[in-house]
Amino acid sequence: MKKAVEILNKSNIRPTLQRINILNVILKYKNHMSAEDIYKILQRETPTISRATVYNTLNLLSKNGILAEVITPDSVRYDYVEKFHHHFYCEKCKKVYDIHDEFSVPNIKKIDGHIVKNIQYCIVGICKNCLNGGE
Amino acid sequence: MKKAVEILNKSNIRPTLQRINILNVILKYKNHMSAEDIYKILQRETPTISRATVYNTLNLLSKNGILAEVITPDSVRYDYVEKFHHHFYCEKCKKVYDIHDEFSVPNIKKIDGHIVKNIQYCIVGICKNCLNGGE
DNA sequence: ACCTCTTTTAGACATTGTCTAAAATTATTA
DNA sequence: TAATAATTTTAGACAATGTCTAAAAGAGGT
Ligand SMILES: [Mn+2]
Ligand SMILES: [Mn+2]
Ligand SMILES: [Zn+2]
Ligand SMILES: [Zn+2]
Asked: How far apart are CA B124 and CA A89, in angstroms?
């Protein structure tokens, strides 16, 4: 597991305790978690952590390309991406699955005069597990 | 403007007053509105309309292929689509723009054992208008 | 130590969406 | 028509997700 501090330093982000903890949660659980998920997990160890810090930090890390924002119909999930891939969202259990098929995504910086900052597939359906009765 | 009643009848959906009103709002304003937007508009004329009815109806119309669900980072928007197209979401003003460039989207029914019900691009950035100061 | 800039905190607030039990409406049967 | 059954709507509580602000805390430079 890569060191959170190194990752932050490389992007010139001051490695505060809170930022390290937030990043470590993502590096440890590889679950495509929402900000709320991460907030709840951190609260167990550090009850003083602020919701605002979690949201601010996740935004900061995304803007610096450290995390990918995975857009789903109910929340944004965060992913530390080492190799590019797509995602599948199950509308039943709300889990996000990695998809390693290489669908191409247009590489555009601008369209119709709008600046594109993020383009991704949103693939929604019912997952394998839920189809089999889900546990 | 197509008749809401006709559209509902064609899909064998009982054309109740509420459903007609909801569909008419979408046909009239072509704004990629959220359920909440539609709810607020209807409340002005019919204060007894229920939030649950709006959400239930939009789900029903989507499941029947009458409306497209446009997924954005903050809400699902509804679109009556006559000609297929993509969408751009401005993270500043939260407006959704039609994109008529024909990026291809993989036509998959299943992937890794998961059933795909909906696949779309999610294109996020800053719109033309906001780049020019917004208004 | 002092000043400044950055970061975090606490908590209110806003927005979006789900759920349920009761009421109202519509369709079917007798 | 009257009784019954099925569908639809309502009201409002609740849950989940995200934003905002003013004050406090912390870090770095002089
Ligand atoms: Mn992933
Ligand atoms: Mn559209
Ligand atoms: Zn599932
Ligand atoms: Zn904009």
From this structure: 18
